[in-house]
Amino acid sequence: xxxxxxxxxxxAGTARRVLIGLAVVAAAVVLGVPTGIVFAHAFGKGVxxxxxAVSAPEALHAIYLSLLTVAVVVxxxxxxxxxxxxxxTKFRWxxxxxxxxxxxxxFSVSPIVAGVATLMVYGSSGLVGEWLMDHDIKVMFAVPxxxxxxxxxxxxxxxxxxMPLMQLQGTDEEEAAQVLGAGGFxxxxxVTLPNVKWALFYGLxxxxxxxxxxxxAVSVVSGHIRGETNTLPLYIDLLYHDYDSxxxxxxxxxxxxxxLVTVVLKAVVEGRRDAAHDDEALx
Length: 283
Description:
This protein is mainly α. Helix content is 82%, strand content 0%.
């Protein structure tokens, strides 16, 4: 190895270490310090004070409502995302480029706009609001409105993760299955779905994380009714404006813990997905 090549490798190694160090420091300052402050303030009155704050009836209802929203939104988005991705990548038809563009709309508009749009459709003076009132169906300022607004802002996540993989895989395996006599639904369950399962799991985790942390759209449609329509982010905001900082930080620590769970799940799924891609490349 020449002196020039050796000095070049040493310089590249130094640059790599510097960049890694800067990334670690930036992550610690931007993410680690605020997270640590949240937990420090949350347990400022000890474990008993933290438990008293998070076990209050309103806090428990906020946690329950957030988890309920995730439990409803994630399966619906799974079906929606898979259906859209399958229709776009496995079939030829006019107008699918417009559908792909439409999928991106929730990423292009503010969540508050999504909340206002939901209100204009389902509210008392909205598009179907009068019909809902006539049939005594309450959507706005209730749990259904929260779910609808959250569905809007989280709808692209599964489709965006699954669609590129389906596009890359093509239609050869599906066509072979149909030649062997498999129907469309069986082909989807036995061929298409197993090939995209890790991308699907990844999209579901992102969808769940966004559902837990959504504030803007939910804030518009919830009505901020204490003990009824406050999700965990809204409850934290309520406590903060009530000058209950210890309660706000305690509730924020619960939301942070839920976020950390999604981060761990995301890392596990990423590892499995990369391993699956490596196996496919070797085969």
